[in-house]
Amino acid sequence: MRRLSCPFPPLAAVVAFAVALAGCASKPPADDPDAVAEYNQTNDPMEPTNRVFYAINDGLDTVIMRPLAVAYKYVVPDTVRSHAHNVLSNLSMPVALFNDMMQGRPRRAGDSLMRIVVNSTVGVAGIFDVATGWGWPKHETDAGMTLALWGLPEGPFLFLPVLGPSSPRDATGFASDLAMDPLTWVGQGVVVSALGWSRYSLSAVNTRADLLVDLDKIKEQALDPYATIRSLYQQHRQSQIEDARSDDRATVPAWFAQPRQP
Amino acid sequence: MLTRRILLLSVTALPVALGLAPSRAWAQNLEQAVAFIERTSNDIVAVANGPASPVDKMKQLQAVIDRAVDVNEVARFCLGRFWRIASAAQQKEYLDLFHRVLMINITGKLGEYQGVSIAIGRGQPREGGVVVASVVNRPGNPPSKVEWVVSTESGSPKIVDVIAEGTSLRLTQRSDYSAYLGRNNNNVQALIDAMKQQASQQD
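YS: structure for the whole thing
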């Protein structure tokens, strides 16, 4: 009999068991309007499940990701890390460009396009971030923000096993980004596949190294790190979406009479 | 015809004339708040980049924060709906502990801010005060957007919130305390004990 080589069925069973065990948060009684208002504002009806996943994530992070990030920071010099960051950032620019266009943000799309062109050529395959100095600043965008700008409501807060704090809208966005990324579909074979996995692994370590100081501070200072991370995530997301929504820089060329600034 | 035009002009002129008076006061408030943040940020940068020893720097920074931040107001906000159910003694103890924990958290990472510079931007009115935008440049890090919320409700301008990259620090702190209290049966004494432990860890 052939042994199960795929690890997913047992993993799925563990996840389902965790969800069933933890269940949903209990809503506070209606005679305490402040508590109810706060429960609604926190938007975390699946809190027990989320906390279980947070604990699992935290364990994996302490054992695997954080040591990797610390080693990365220790071994790799600052300039090389910054160049690696630039290369990874450049590789994810096509997805940002598509998202900017779908959001209907012409100036942001222009910034993304020029960043791809300039950094890939003058910036030697993305190593040097020349475009920022030339007037095309970096901005963050992803399919979760696109869905938000299209009017999709956020949904309850979710803490996902590997991805961390998220929501149904952002998780959908993450999957869409993977599908939209042209680099996912380009090429075949062992080398391409290895490059792809290297890119994701390096991206994970790089992101974790960037967050090293901040996450350490949260774990040290917060009485409830899970709640702190949840609050930070929700606020940061809201601020990113607001930035995108309110970015209505004029699209007239520089040599044309500029509209008056508000 | 002429009378209608005069009437139209006077009707449109009246709200403009009325609007000018409050907006001048508003403009003054904005300027006052921006000037206040400029002074405070200059003080902070001077302390962070100054030649004093770490212990002296901590004391100097504490003095700046006491002058510039309305710590009691922030503390009350962070306890939120539990302020009302706390006894007077608990409230007093909480305010004192909050002050100590805030100082520890802010001055703990003073070394990281060597070489910092702060560029102050514009002020915008918002509910309850003025929000002054700024950009904080730390060497070796990308510049970060920080907004300072200034309130004049206590008479003189005081900082009541700091919004770093879109996240309000006092909202985050309130979520933290609220979640902790939620898991400890809404018992304010449990929070006070936890804060006591935090404060004593660093002493």
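YS: worth flagging: The first helix of chain B runs from residue 2 to 49.
IM: good catch. Also Residues 17-21 of chain B have pLDDT under 50 and may be disordered.
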